[in-house]
């Protein structure tokens, strides 16, 4: 009886309880005229030991079943009916299955119960056996994947670090059964579908069907999902007998795809054996896997799929999934090929592609986009999600039924890169969800040279997906039909539940990390096995030939893909110039000046920084430009200055976004607080900005230095975006910056890092048109505005200019409410524009030849300089000029200023430390402007490792010291 009570406390009921109420919802029910509660049974479920028949099952299932029995005694098995009647009547646990005393005159029911007891004297054993079978079923569902045949090499690199899995015919004793029970018939619980139309099966057959469902080439992890409907859906897909059946046509299609995948790699190996290409050998089934997902998704109504992937297999995916012209791929191997477009370009296994074609299986149009990706393997994940979200937004796809994403991963990167976790956590947030992504992991079972045992702490590389309850389908990549079935299920899951799902293709890497790498140095045992391994195409073709699914003649006809490759190779030799347009992952048709005018600003009022931003956004929205502002706390603003989302002070979650109510035909304004992620969110917004040039997409860091955790996105995508990926992008980064005496954290947006990566030559004075040509030639624009009006104009310029460049805005903190940092509406009326440099307009203009010093600066320090100049009375001897646009550098306007004051020495003043900030960037450009005829002196803080001091008093001393230097007219003369 102890085993019975233990099992009772741990297991689900053996009959249907879909209508069972939870303990917190259940109410006492009347049975036979008596009001009953669970109290008489409490000891049955709370006093027993926790013998682990089933891992992780809640102990309140019996209580739930009890309340179901109270509501309807026929809703449970008769054995439970007897048990509950006895226990409810106060019978001791050891006698619970004795004949119960009368209950409220229910003579007929009592007679039935007594008759059942008399007919089955060993009722306790019967109940135990049925519960044991249920626990066995659940054990397969929970842990069957542990003994599935997932590894093509059969070397077992996965370490579960647990006791042996007690599954199989020889292990039934663990569940209280013995071999004599194998031929007994048991009723199947409603939590399994292995019976099909049968409700009872012999135990031997139950185990056989469970092993077919969970222990063959597919291993399913799903029992951690806390949604009954989703669990039942998955059980049906894998447990029903005969679910993995394919027609002859499906098998022939699968074989054809395997041939193309394999022969493509073989062709490249023959032609360019010494070239790096990161081939797909060992996981050739990836190609039919992706095509299956695309086919099924197209069948479900998807019209556009955005994909991201690392380098392994990219060329094969481009050729056989995206359908890029083979000659365009092959010509990339020509070392004498010249690029037609400007930019550095990138290696062939990093570039992307966009293609619209007919899906031959569904006969529907499908648009496929493979995003360009650097060697930072998972960096593309949030970029893909952002682009997907944007395409869904622009086509009104609010449920993700028309646009979806597929992300490919390597096993080591999937487990090791934090941006994977960050991207998963965006998956269900309202402003970031793309309504489900299919993740495909190419599981080589080894990193570059790193064994999984020292590469991750989890058993599988895919365990990170459990954080969002995504089902994980492990599959042996050497079983193409199992791969095809799993991918069909994954696509159906996404279409049904609009949630993420993971396909783990357990494979191997026939070559090393690349074709030049020797893997035997670090994985000798694995690669000895790999050398003996028969290729998956050979194994599958032999299987179909043996089945009679294809004839030898049919196979030879299918295998003529080599001829197609040879013909494409011949054509590729005629290519002398690489046309970058062939490698675009998202074309922008019709980019031009779409905004013709500006809204009239009324009145003569003054605006501060926040209102200037508000007016810039409002005018663009009214003119039809969609605006998306994202980041931590952007709705209110980190410094409580924005308030773009108003909250009802009395009704929870009732909000208003006034900017969405400007005019009837305005564009929408999306403002959304993001998750606590910079890497993931900035990548997401970058992808969103890629989808359309006619939207203003802004990401604001909570503090400027927070961008350092998104440095990979900045370094790999934003800075070199046009040069590497041939992709213009107009994303705006808002980075709060300023030395306020509050310590090193959150003081500096590290402008020196952005300036160092500018592609402009500091030693060459440009000769072309400055205002437009410089912007077109630069890799990004960096500004530090000192007035709301200039901030207003630079935001609008992002849309008004006929091309797109990333914009880095060093935004203020103290200037948000500075009484002097205000602008007149007149500065924002039609006819006004962004000022790259703001010259001094004070008394120095009356007699410029008498001016002894011109101080160049940028941003907030201007107001400290003017205050100090007024205090010193140097208004007529020291000019102060603000360089608002640092990159591209306004050489022409700086020259006007230096020529205006021919007798003035030149000083660059900044509040940042000398080895930080702008000095190293500005000095050579100032020297070039004056043709190196005058020195450029420095006024600012000295070099330091940290951005700012943590001592307020020290901060003020440093501030006064560099202000003294800036206005001491003899200081630099003495130094010289």
TrEMBL record:
It is an enzyme of class 1 (oxidoreductase). Its EC number is 1.2.4.2. Its cofactor is Mg(2+); thiamine diphosphate. One of its GO terms (molecular function) is oxoglutarate dehydrogenase (succinyl-transferring) activity. Residues 607-818 form the Transketolase-like pyrimidine-binding domain. Keywords: Calcium, Glycolysis, Isopeptide bond, Magnesium, Metal-binding, Mitochondrion, Nucleus, Oxidoreductase, Thiamine pyrophosphate, Transit peptide, Ubl conjugation. It is found in: Mitochondrion; Nucleus. InterPro entries: 2-oxogl_dehyd_N (IPR032106), 2oxoglutarate_DH_E1 (IPR011603), DH_E1 (IPR001017), KGD_C_sf (IPR042179), ODO-1/KGD_C (IPR031717), THDP-binding (IPR029061), Transketolase-like_Pyr-bd (IPR005475). It catalyses: N(6)-[(R)-lipoyl]-L-lysyl-[protein] + 2-oxoglutarate + H(+) = N(6)-[(R)-S(8)-succinyldihydrolipoyl]-L-lysyl-[protein] + CO2. GO terms for biological process: glycolytic process; tricarboxylic acid cycle. The keyword Iron does not apply. Gene3D superfamilies: 3.40.50.12470, 3.40.50.970, Multifunctional 2-oxoglutarate metabolism enzyme, C-terminal domain, TPP helical domain. The keyword Ion transport does not apply. Its main location: mitochondrion. One of its GO terms (cellular component) is nucleus. Pfam families: 2-oxogl_dehyd_N, E1_dh, OxoGdeHyase_C, Transket_pyr. Belongs to the alpha-ketoglutarate dehydrogenase family. This is 2-oxoglutarate dehydrogenase complex component E1. The gene is ogdhb.
